[in-house]
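Homework help board

Subject: predicted structure for assignment chain

Our instructor gave us this sequence and asked us to write out the predicted structure in token form, then describe one feature. I got the tokens but I'm not sure how to describe them. Can anyone check?
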Amino acid sequence: MSIKIVFFHLLTLLLFCACFSEGNAQAPTETTPQVVDFLINAVAQSHLTFIRNGEKHTSAEAAEHIKMKYDYFRAKIKTPKDFIGLCASQSILSGKQYLVITENGTIPVATWLEQNLFNHEKSPKKS
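My token output:
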């Protein structure tokens, strides 16, 4: 076989593989700030009651508070779990755990956000 024929077949094979693998390409991974924005929006849109230092707050107030903490700690946050741990788990001043009242009872906000994060990561991404 001549080198031209081998080259032609190799090129044809590469193009064939490229055509069929394009549909299987994975979507780009979300950045940490994008996931953090998703989590803050999940809090804001939840319409649940959040408890911080023993006081009840609306979902909008809770989202505003953890966004403020995120802006403060942004340089230290490398992953969404860092965000949950630094901004949405407990009060820096009192050390008290943040809570959320759900239809299934009162749970730590960190647990609620970790479940939201898990569901988000497992959901099919839209391109």
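Reply (TA_rk): Your tokens look well-formed. For the description, you could write something like this. Helices lie at 3-21, 32-45, 59-73, 80-87, 109-122. That's the kind of observation they're looking for.
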